[in-house]
Amino acid sequence: MWDYSEKVIDHYKNPRNVGSIDNADAIGEAGSLSCGDMLKLYLKVDKSGIITDAKFQTFGCGSAVASSSILTEMIIGKHINEAKKITNKQIVDALGGLPPEKMHCSVMGHEALEAAIADYYKEDISLHTDANIVCNCFDISKSFLETEIKNNNLKTLEDVMNYTKAGGACGRCRGKIQEILNSINGVEKSTPKLTKTQLIIKINNVIEKYIAPELQKDGGNIELIDVDDNKVKVSLTGRCNTCTRSQLTLTHFVEDTLKKYADSNIEIVQV
Amino acid sequence: MTNSKLIYLDNNATTKTDEKVIETMLPYFSEYYGNPSSIYEFGGKNAHKIKEARDKMRDFFGAESDKEIFFTASGSECANMAIRGLLASKHAAGKNHIITTKVEHPCVLNLYKHLAKEGYNVTYIGVNDKGELNTDELYNSVNDNTALVACMYANNETGAVFPVEQIAQKVKDINPEVKIYVDAVQAAGKIPLNVKNTQIDMMGVSGHKFHAPKGIGALYVNSSIVLEPLIYGGHQERGKRAGTENVPYIAGIAEAAQLAKDALNFEAVQVKRLRDKLETGLLNTVFNARLNSLAQNRVPNTTNIGFEFIEGELILLNMDEFGICASSGSACTSGSLDPSHVLKAMNVPFTALHGSIRFSLSRFTTEDEIDYTLKVMPSIIEKLAKISPFQKELSALKQKRGI
Fold first, then answer.
1. Which residues in B lie closer than 8 A to residue A65 (C-beta atoms)?
2. Does the pLDDT at position B321 exceed 80?
3. Domains observed in chain A
4. Contacts of residue A39 in chain B, CB cutoff 8 Å?
5. Residue B398 pLDDT grade (very low, low, confident, very high; cuts 50, 70, 90)
6. Which of B202, B203, B336, B369 lies 20 to 30 angstroms, CA to CA, from A131?
7. Long-range pairs of B395-399 with CB within 8 A, sequence gap ≥ 24
8. Is B62 left (phi over 0), alpha (psi -120 to 50) or beta?
9. Which residues contact A93 (CB under 8 A, 6 or more apart)?
10. pLDDT score recorded for residue A241
11. Which of B121, B311, B381, B382 is the mutation pick for testing A, counting most A CBs within 10 A?
């Protein structure tokens, strides 16, 4: 059971401004059916730039409907340039707060508003046209994450998931999100010490995913023999075994890849 | 809630404790509170009550001997005690392959994920789009290194019943050393259990799913299996689970088990009739209703229906207005952002996945309650459909279904 504020409950029970606007001056969309929530926002804007009407259609949970509903109330009567300044935090505040896991609903409201305003100005600044997608499950770009992390002062991976959903499904992008967090918050790499088994599994995964396929292209392969502290003992097999440049492969490719994805202190030892 | 009436259709989540069960339990709090291990009559009396309860649970499982029954605190504890206890035992020595299904309850699934981190080689078996287990896939994955197969009896979200007796037999035909754990939490009290003369080695049930209170479970372990305990301490539960016995709850689960066993016929006929009435009614009157639980063999109390293009949490919140309780596989209800792993494994389309609602009845569900639910659901969905951005898709559905 979610701890919804009275305002949220009121807005999902009696959503305001539901529907579409024929001949809308701007339409903004955010989210998708596969993500589990989607919002379509319609605006009517008069000649002086005042939003005279706003309507919404939302596929989503109680807080998604409430966020959409209150957003329409917040923008009707405002000049489009004023509406542009509304942040997701203001949406949350107007709702009397949202459970942390539901913060992304307010972000969706904000996204749809931005998209609608861009549509009004016929700009092509759609948030998701960014090729640099971090979270594939929810189609979330790096630049979007950077903006949200900065604006909402997000500190942890969990914060990012709650606000943007990024990393919340398959979890494959969590490492990348952490890197973005680190680069913004300037956090020193606080990687918890892994047990030997965990480290071996991690190294093995990196080898299977990034290293072995490359070596196999050249008819070679690699085998993990042992991990001793930061020393990773491997054996090159197949054509790598006889290749004169195998030492180069080890230090430049294998070690660098392991340093990048597994642990920065790794040293490769050929056995 | 604007309606004072409560219509509880979420019995796969938990059930109402039967009044008769409470009656059985009450004397064991402040009247007969002795420790069953004590030597005097006042405590020994409780040891006798536990013995009686253990025999009732043996009967409920259809097991051979009382010695095969262990009381636990939950279904999750049963799974952990059985799986961890087996893997640490001589039965699994030198083996590191374990099998389970993609649609298990988290108490098995998350344990397996953890075991994978510990170094176990794990195979997860899928289901078809009806929610039925791909048994051939399971048989093909059994090898010399396989220590354990953990398979649920009935799925909590769809009610699909897996042929666990047949699976146990076939797996042992391939490799007789493999042990079988069956999570029967969602089957207990809905269909008969009968471990005797099967190849099932261990089976867990949870009291609160069949009208006992929360906090009590029971595990069947075949007498040929010697588990390593999870909790060391006193001699209770034959040294396999230390801790002073929870006498009132043990008395409670045994009473509930007996009542449930006596009501199995009622479940199979009356509960099923009401479930079918609800299911057919919803499919006939709600234009975007899609049946997710298509399995041939299903427990009699469960149905899972997807209301296309509408989100599940929103449906539940609106049902709550009418006092109707159910649950949803939508991402938003769980807070995990990820929709039901069961419905995903079944490839339920996104259009229906997020709007899936599970209705689960019990022997206390009345015809009036089902009629009332059938009366209000179409208007709830109509109201919510107006909010959906998928108007075109919804009106196409409406036209197609002619509702």
1. 314, 387
2. yes
3. 6-120 (3.90.1010.10), 130-185 (1.10.10.1100), 196-270 (3.30.300.130)
4. 389
5. very high
6. B336
7. B397/B287, B397/B288, B397/B308, B397/B309, B398/B287, B398/B288
8. left
9. none
10. 67
11. B311
Contact residues on chain B for A29, CB-CB shorter than 8 A: 389
Q: Using CA atoms, how far apart are residues A212 and B211, in angstroms rounded to an integer?
A: 55
Contact B335 A169 (CB under 8 A): no
Mean pLDDT score, B102-106:
96
**Rounded Cα gap, residues A33 and B128, in angstroms:** 23
Integer Cα distance of B263 and B245 in angstroms: 28
Q: How far is B317 from chain A (nearest CA, A)?
A: 7
Please report which residue ranges of chain A form alpha helices under DSSP H: 6-13, 62-75, 80-83, 88-94, 103-120, 142-151, 157-164, 174-185, 196-206, 212-217, 239-242, 246-248, 256-261
CA–CA dist A241, A222 (Å, integer)? 9
CB atoms within 10 A of CB A214: 14
Cβ pair B71, B248 in contact under 8 A: no
Residue A173 designated active-site: no
Q: Residue A222: which pLDDT band, with cuts at 50, 70 and 90?
A: confident
Q: Report all structural domains of chain B as residue ranges with CATH numbers, in order of start.
A: 7-15+264-401 (3.90.1150.10), 32-262 (3.40.640.10)
Nearest to B128 by CA among B12, B291, B294, B289: B294
Q: How confident is the model at residue A175 (pLDDT cuts 50, 70, 90)?
A: confident
- Which phi and psi (to 5°) does residue B46 adopt? -70, -35
- pLDDT over 80 (residue A157): yes
Closest CA to B341 of B326, B331, B351, B355: B331
Question: Which A residues 23-62 touch B at CB under 8 Å?
Answer: 29, 33-34, 36-40, 57-62
A240 labelled catalytic: no
Q: What pTM value is reported for the model?
A: 0.81
How far apart CA A67 and CA A93 sit, in angstroms, is 10
Residue from the list B311, B337, B389 with its beta carbon closest to the beta carbon of A57: B389
Evaluate if residue B2 carries a pLDDT over 60.
no
B2–chain A Cβ distance below 8 A for any pair: no
